[in-house]
Structure formats: C-alpha cells, structure tokens
Amino acid sequence: MRFDVITLMPEMVETVAGFGVTGRAEKRNLIELHCWNPRDQTEDVHRTVDDRPYGGGPGMVMKADCLLKTIREVKKSAPEKTKVIYLSPQGKPLEQSMLLDTSVNEQSLILLCGRYEGIDERVIELEVDEEWSIGDYVLSGGELGAMVVIDGITRLLPSVLGHNESAEQDSFSDNLLDHGHYTRPEVVEDLDVPAVLKSGDHKAIAIWRRKQALGRTFEKRPDLLENRALSDEDQKLLDEYLKK
After folding, report:
1. What CATH number labels 187-242?
2. Which terminus of the chain is more exposed, N or C, with fewer CB under 10 A?
C-alpha cells in the first residue's frame, strides 16, 4: 500500500510514521510513505502557500495553485486511479468499515492535509475525491488525521500484525466494542482474572467474549446497536449480560 501525504509539515508525518506498526511495516516494505510539500511548487521568494480569504474574515486560506500543482505532480508517480482524500472537519466521519474497504480495494491513497482556515474550495472541486473527518472537533491541520488513516489501514494489511487474527478481533471489526483483556499476574489488588478465561474451554471463552462485547457496546456506545438486528443468540447473550 502506498500513501502520499501532501503537507506543509512532512517531518511531522515522517516522524510519527517511523514508530510502531507503521514504522515496522515501512521497514518491511509492506507500505510506502511519501511526503510532498506544497511550498516546493511555489514560485515566489517567500514560498507563499496561503492568502487572505475573499469576502473577509479571520485567518488565511491555502492557495489553489500550489496545491493543484502538487496533487498533479503526485499523480504522475502514483498508481492510476489513486483516490485523493482531503482530511476535513466537513468530511465523512471515519469508520472501521472505510478503513477495511480501502485496505482491500485500493493500492494507494493521496492524503491532503489542510492548514490555517482550510484550502481553496476549487481544489476540492477539481481534484478531491472524498473528504474524511476523524471527529467533530477542529485541529490545527490534517496531519494527525492523515496519520490516523495510515495507521488504521496499515494494521489491516496482510502480514503487518504479528497474529493473523489481531485485526479481525479489534473493536469495531464487527461494529462492536472489544471485550476486556487480562494478562499476568492472575490477581491485581484483589481483582482476579475471570474464571472462564483460565478454564481452557475455548468454546466457553468465545461465548464469554461475545457476551462482553455486546454488553460493553450497549453500555458505552448504544448508538452502535440502535439499527442492528441482533441474532437470537446475540440477544440472549446481551440479556444475560444485563442481568448480571
């Protein structure tokens, strides 16, 4: 998987990407990361990438010319039909299903990171395929959003994680929150590991984990269950959890 990130702060993206799952994946050539600075496509001595907004108002807006040149330069080296994703508060809220779909169906992504008050709207009209948002809040730029996308997709790629089932069992993999996890020591401040997890009965453990996932989702993110038709088995497990 190839990621091309258009950013005024390439060092920030490269530094974050160098750690953890993404860093290991890049070293193993499971992903490619390329950063492109729009300042390299400017022609004035100050390498100006922003200007005051038409109509007045606070802040500055990233200019169309340098961004369009950068996107089109990236496309020359990227695979054909590469999507351009703009990280934006106005974008579609990011969900696990979007990351999974991208990891399966796309070879590369161009991630456009805005700064200041945003980018010239004509860039979106001319070159952006989709706008994605990582939440209903405002950050100083799209770089952190781009890294969330890169990390989320990378860990879904084959051979990236140490265990083949790790990604499949994560929170939101089935649009449910994850069950609780325990490790040694067996007792922590009088709190013991649930007995079923020490039983060696894999079927019972799987049922317990499913029940916990359903129950925790009901308690913490009931919105995820609002439009979900539970199977008879899942409904029974949820009812049992709520009676505890």
Report:
1. 1.10.1270.20
2. C
